[in-house]
Write a structure and sequence with these properties.
Elements (H helix, E strand, L loop, with lengths): L24 H7 L2 H10 L2 E7 L6 H6 L2 H5 L14 H19 L3 E13 L2 E4 L3 H12 L12 E3 L5 E3 L5 E3 L2 H13 L3 E4 L2 E5 L2 E12 L5 E11 L6 H4 L3 H26 L12 H5 L8 E7 L8 H14 L12 H26 L1
Bound molecules: adenosine-5'-triphosphate (ATP) and magnesium ion.
Magnesium ion binds next to helix 3.
Length: 363
């Protein structure tokens, strides 16, 4: 619940959990029940976690912790896991749960794959592909026309999904391998300082863990589920951030894709499915399609800035979070349909072979 002091109207919002500045990263992780969400991913469901709020409100801190400050040697030489965000904790939890599942359910073989992308100026870039990252950073530094870099294409698949073409995907055997990739990618993210945030995210990023489970006991059924960890760039007013030039252009694009995100949320909650949901209007909403009104479990974290000056932005964040909580997703297990079909055919062949043998015996 949130109230607005100093305003004649009192506003009330309902949420599953509310955290204040005294809560630790641990409290947030446990309070949000992320272990249950990860359990669902291991069972074969998609899940998405994203933080939403104005610039400087703590989205990156919530999703990724203080990794950057530690890297810069500002606060400590030693990595402090207490400062880890949901992503680092989630990676660890996922591998622990997989190990546990494989111990208990002997017939299950589970593989984990990682990918990491950023959407910058409405273009998709691979954070794990050094050549893509190098080119983009060089271009940005020299202030060359960004339209020269084309980014990766997004393709629409028959399974009603948007897929990024040619994205690097790495198989990880351990949580250390996944963490290393996450760290490598997050160092390649585009950040910039402005009045409200020294390390402001200038791109939206999505770290995806894909879990492929083959169940030998269940006729070799394969489920492919995804955990998407999203760090959005923040909505911002140029008058407050004081951005100019290239950064101002970034601001416009950041605000544009967030506008489409808000349009999608509004369309899903207010139009009762009558209108076409405008997923296609931005790359971000294309890639979050299953998370908003689709078959994924989704957790949205509304980040607020504890300062009266940001009351308007905070109310807007609360309004959209309240709306988003009314979206009904329909989580379904992602059993690979081709595999199911193949297994059914195999079973039929086996049945026919048995019948044939019996008929031959009879003759
Ligand atoms: N709960 C918190 N406790 C301590 N420090 C925090 C907390 N939340 C945010 N911060 C600090 O506030 C600053 C801004 O936070 P952060 O970069 O996460 O904001 P953001 O919402 O990602 O902004 P942007 O949209 O510009 O990327 C960072 O230095 C971060 O370490
Ligand atoms: Mg950020």
């Amino acid at each position: 619940m949130a109230t607005t002091s100093g305003f004649s109207r009192r506003k009330t919002y309902n949420f599953d959990q509310v955290f204040n500045p005294d809560h630790s990263q641990d409290d947030v992780y446990d309070g949000l029940g992320i272990n249950n969400l990860i359990n669902k991913v291991v069972e074969g469901y998609h899940a998405t976690i994203f933080a939403y709020g104005q610039t400087g409100s703590g989205k990156t801190f919530t999703m990724e912790g203080n990794e950057r400050e530690l890297d810069e040697g500002r606060t400590s030489e030693v990595h402090d896991s207490l400062e880890d965000g949901i992503t680092q904790r989630g990676i660890l939890e996922l591998f622990e749960q997989i190990q546990q599942t494989q111990k208990v359910e002997k017939g299950k073989h589970i593989s984990v794959f990682c990918s990491f992308l950023q959407i910058y100026n409405e273009k998709v870039f691979d954070l794990l592909n050094p050549s893509s990252v190098g080119g983009l950073t060089a271009l940005r530094k020299t202030q060359t026309n960004m339209s020269d870099t084309s980014g990766l294409r997004i393709r629409w698949t028959k399974k009603d999904q948007f897929v990024v073409e040619n994205l690097y995907v790495f198989e990880c055997q351990t949580h250390e391998e996944a963490l290393k990739l996450f760290k490598f990618g997050s160092q390649n993210k585009i950040l910039a300082s402005h009045n409200l945030n020294e390390f402001s995210s200038r791109s939206h990023s999505i770290f995806t863990l894909t879990i492929e489970t083959q169940d030998i006991k269940l006729n070799h059924n394969v489920t492919i589920s995804r955990l998407q960890l999203v760090d959005l760039a923040g909505s911002e007013k140029q008058s407050l951030t004081g951005t100019t030039g290239q950064q101002a252009k970034e601001s416009i694009d950041i605000n544009k894709s967030l506008l489409v995100l808000r349009k999608v949320i509004t369309s899903l909650t207010e139009n009762n499915g009558r209108d076409i949901v405008p997923y296609r209007e931005s790359k971000l909403t294309q890639l979050l399609k299953q998370s908003l009104g689709g078959n994924s479990y989704t957790l949205m974290i509304a980040c607020l800035s504890p300062c009266d000056k940001f009351i308007e932005e905070n109310l807007s964040t609360l309004n959209y979070a309240a709306k988003a909580s009314m979206i009904s997703n329909l989580p379904t297990k992602n059993v690979d349909p081709q595999m199911v079909q193949l297994n059914e055919i195999k079973k039929k062949v086996r049945d026919v072979e048995v019948e044939l043998r019996q008929a031959n015996d009879h003759i």
